[in-house]
Amino acid sequence: MSSMHTRPVRVLVVPGATEIAMEVRAALGHRPDIELYSAGIAEGTHADLVFARHEPLPMVDDPEWAERLGGIIRDHDIDLVYPAHDSVVLACAEAAATLGAAVVGSPADTCRVAR
Fold first, then answer.
1. Cα 29 to the center of its chain, rounded Å
2. pTM of the prediction?
């Protein structure tokens, strides 16, 4: 057996202020093998209070949204992105190839049909 230490899986929940995000936090937040991060609008939400690691991110309809999300992913070496809003599910699926982390969800075509 290897005694090599591996770091926790880094999961980014976007946006962090939705009920879905709170459910993800409740399910994964106490696991020692997972490090939770959140991203979403900077003001007027509780995400920065309930997630130890919260990054500001513009609304999903902002033209720079995917680029900014990719920057957060790179800056924190995120492994998985968990979209926590219907619009973000589709946006993440459409940008998945350029984000630099795996997106939890279905392919973009499936997300468009479901949306």
1. 14
2. 0.91
